[in-house]
Design goal:
single chain, alpha/beta, Rossmann fold, seven-stranded mixed beta sheet, four-stranded parallel beta sheet, 13 helices, 16% strand, elongated
């Protein structure tokens, strides 16, 4: 039986270019049901609940809500807060004060942990609440889903960057022959692997790809770079930020208090410089490194239409599941566009899905056709952006806060 009450939506973790598509569809679908009253947004995810910063999303214009489907970043603001036992009392006091009966949390692995904890706490306290996790992550590492909203657009951007930068590098082989491009992804190589989509044949970039899933061997790496350099005059290399040694340690990491988030994840990002220095010191070959960093997460100007459609589909499916009385689930995506399923949050939270070993070649430095066949459909189609004075125009929520 459907619960009568209000909706609260939060966004968490690093934004994707399509995360607001899920927000849009949750809002628009929730408006269809008479037993749903107010629709609130938590500013900066669960931190917004703890800080009593909720906005009334029904006050936003239809134009702004629709514009979310083509706007990057997290419109409500994201966070990386790990819920503590001491937080639960405050969270449920806020929920009760504004009669929250439906909670939708848009995020990745850590966010699903938060959703799972709130679902279990609600059951233990006897508080009527439907909790649904709505997936997003460019890392594509959530389990039990064919793919994750956000990955397709980021993969499209990475592959495009590699194709264009690869042409540039090839034109400069006599003076700047080696380029190392670094993607995000922490412990998984879905984005480095996606760079292979750039290769249209022959000696086009990328030439070598290195995955966090495979133990990194410096001697083997230098040998493969040198061999490629001698064969074609240069090399375009793509690496995941979380490359690890055979002992399982990151080969380059910051682990001080400032560089470690609430979930204990260290800051990564220096691996491309580390490898550039290794190439120049050992092979005496000029190299440069490129870090796409947050640009790959925010590139709505060349997002995948398929990705936007999938992001909207998981938001809508989340509402449909909740109004049917389901709780403690994450919406999943199937192989077909905008087709969804459900997985228990407890089976998803804090679990990472790696690139299958059989989708990486025997040498461990490129992908197989199975990977390409998997990834290629996810980058299809373009998003029509609004352009003014030569630049894309995006929307912002008015953010009318409620009194608590």
């Amino acid at each position: 039986m459907s619960l009568e009450g209000n909706v609260l939506i939060g966004q968490s973790g690093g934004p994707t270019s399509v995360i607001n598509g899920s927000l849009y569809s949750i809002i628009t679908e929730a408006k269809k049901y008479g037993f749903i009253g107010d629709i609130y947004g938590a500013i900066h995810g669960i931190e917004g609940v703890l800080n009593k910063q909720l906005i009334d999303l029904r006050c936003e214009s239809d134009e702004i809500i629709k514009g979310l489907t083509r706007t990057p970043g997290a419109a409500l603001g994201g966070c990386r807060h790990k819920v503590q036992d001491s937080d639960l009392e405050t969270i449920f006091k806020v929920f009760d004060s504004v009669n929250i009966k439906y909670f939708f949390y848009i995020g990745g692995n850590d966010s699903m942990d938060t959703a799972d904890r709130l679902n279990k706490a609600a059951v233990e306290q006897g508080y009527e609440l439907c909790v649904i996790g709505v997936p997003k992550t460019i890392d594509n590492d959530l389990p039990l889903t064919h793919h994750c909203p956000g990955f397709g657009s980021c993969a499209k951007y990475v592959a495009t960057s590699v194709r264009e930068a690869g042409i540039h590098t090839a034109s400069m082989y006599t003076s700047e022959p080696v380029t190392i491009l670094q993607t995000v992804g922490r412990n998984t190589g879905w984005l480095p692997g996606a760079s292979a989509l750039a290769k249209s044949g022959g000696d086009d970039a990328p030439h070598l790809i290195y995955f966090p899933e495979n133990p990194f061997d410096m001697d083997k790496f230098l040998e493969e770079v040198e061999r490629t350099y001698k064969r074609i005059g240069g090399a375009f290399i793509v690496v995941g930020e979380g490359l690890k040694s055979a002992s399982g340690d990151y080969i380059q990491v910051q682990s001080d208090d400032v560089a470690t988030d609430a979930f204990g994840h260290p800051m990564l990002g220096g691996v491309s410089e580390f490898l550039r220095n290794a190439i120049e010191s050992n092979l005496k070959i000029k190299a440069r490194n490129v870090k796409l960093d947050i640009c790959q997460q925010a590139a709505m100007h060349f997002a995948s239409r398929r990705d936007v459609n999938d992001a909207m589909a998981v938001g809508k499916a989340g509402v449909l599941a909740a109004v049917e009385g389901l709780s403690g689930f994450m919406v999943t995506l199937l192989a077909e566009e905008a087709q969804t399923g459900l997985a228990e949050l407890a089976r998803v939270a804090n679990v990472e899905r790696e690139v299958p070993r059989e989708w990486i070649n025997e040498e461990g430095n490129f992908v197989t056709t199975d990977f390409l066949d998997y990834a290629r459909p996810l980058i299809q189609g373009e998003v029509k952006t609004h352009i003014e004075n030569g630049l894309p125009v995006y929307v912002k929520l008015r953010k009318e806060f409620i009194e608590l």
